[in-house]
């Protein structure tokens, strides 16, 4: 199912029976090359040292079972990769698995591992999680070390876990995030105040979010979130600039996939004026999210505005950037955001419920998600 680029078993204790986890191929594992699932980096030397998160997992007794496939250079939303293969969406093999952490989401959804690490620069954990019907967390920016992750410098990117249940999510976060409060994160929060953000999304998905809030019996109200659309556009500008800095030189190799080659050629044309405007939008949107969270514990909204399109539609040119319209803004602001699978009317597939919390309140986001999970399971 091409979820893995390479499979192996790595543990601090070879006899350990700890939980299994796979690592996205944009995160260093000593002795294995970090290729970003790109032909242009196929000859990269093996990493000399583990990324900090990898070492933390090993120290905590996790067993690493391989490196997962991804959208090339983490620069795409579909997960389609004609070099390493496209991971199979465990919810529907005809649909895209989502990018860029496609292999990590697919491996967890297919129950090949207990958890997987991904990276999220413009929705690249939460998007694939929603596509593949699993849980994905983008932690607060800076909460989890990026040392040993590619690209080496980013003002947007976060390392975070995929799991099938919140208890495993909490255990994974406890391993990779210093001072993560496991007890607080596992304590089902049934008394949170929830603000439902009004957004443009398919009716069935919006109703699914509202139904989940009702089933969980949270006190709730609807809100408008200022600057959401501007933050989406600004996030595109920032990721273009930062990805071009890291990878634009690979265009001249002629070894990039057509989609990434085209995106990089556009990315290098981003102007300083566009970047300056994006940073103003970052400040405005961050302040808007902080204001919204002054009077509520978490914000909830769909993860994706629609179910994932088919691979065929993506290959035929159906635009996909709007997939990230509701997730990319929170990379810009840096708030923690988790995608939880929820049922929707008229579809065997699950959609994603996105839960956004205050900066540093990753534990509270997990606790609210745990109550959602329990309430939905009992309904």
TrEMBL record:
Residues 18-366 form the Amidase domain. The keyword Protease does not apply. Keywords: Transferase. The keyword DNA-binding does not apply. It holds the Pfam family Amidase. InterPro entries: Amidase (IPR000120), Amidase_CS (IPR020556), Amidase_dom (IPR023631), AS_sf (IPR036928). GO terms for molecular function: transferase activity. Belongs to the amidase family. This is Glu-tRNA amidotransferase. The gene is gatA_2.
């Amino acid at each position: 199912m091409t979820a893995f680029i390479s499979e192996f078993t790595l543990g601090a204790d070879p006899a350990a029976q700890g939980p299994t986890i796979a690592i996205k191929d944009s995160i260093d594992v000593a002795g294995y090359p970090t290729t970003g699932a790109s032909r242009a980096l196929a000859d990269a030397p093996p990493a000399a040292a583990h990324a900090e998160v990898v070492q933390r997992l090993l120290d905590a007794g996790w067993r690493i079972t391989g490196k997962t496939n991804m959208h090339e250079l983490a620069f795409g939303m579909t997960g389609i990769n004609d070099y390493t293969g496209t991971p199979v969406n465990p919810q529907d093999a005809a649909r895209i698995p989502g990018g860029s952490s496609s292999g990590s989401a697919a491996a967890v959804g297919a129950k090949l591992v207990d958890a997987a690490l991904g990276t999220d620069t413009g929705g690249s954990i939460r998007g694939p999680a929603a596509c593949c019907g699993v849980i994905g967390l983008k932690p607060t920016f800076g909460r989890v070390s990026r040392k040993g992750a590619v690209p080496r410098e980013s003002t947007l990117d976060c390392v975070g876990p995929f799991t099938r249940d919140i208890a495993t999510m909490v255990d994974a976060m406890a391993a990779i995030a210093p001072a993560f409060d496991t007890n607080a994160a596992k304590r089902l929060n049934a008394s949170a105040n929830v603000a439902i953000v009004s957004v443009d999304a398919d009716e069935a998905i919006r109703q699914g979010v509202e139904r989940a809030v009702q089933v969980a019996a949270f006190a709730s109200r609807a809100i408008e979130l200022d600057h959401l659309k501007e933050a989406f556009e600004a996030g595109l500008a920032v990721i273009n600039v930062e990805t071009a800095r890291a990878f634009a030189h690979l265009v001249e190799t002629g070894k990039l996939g057509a989609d990434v080659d085209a995106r990089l050629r556009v990315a290098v044309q981003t102007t300083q004026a566009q970047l300056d405007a994006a940073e103003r939008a970052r400040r405005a949107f961050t302040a808007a999210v902080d204001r919204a969270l002054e009077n509520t514990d978490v914000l909830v909204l769909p993860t994706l505005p629609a179910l994932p399109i088919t691979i065929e539609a993506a290959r035929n040119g159906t635009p996909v950037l709007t997939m990230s319209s509701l997730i990319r803004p929170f990379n810009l602001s840096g708030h923690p955001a988790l995608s939880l699978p929820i049922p929707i009317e008229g579809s065997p597939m699950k959609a994603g419920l996105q839960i956004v919390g205050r900066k540093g309140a990753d534990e509270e986001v997990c606790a609210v998600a745990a109550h959602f999970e329990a309430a939905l399971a009992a309904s």
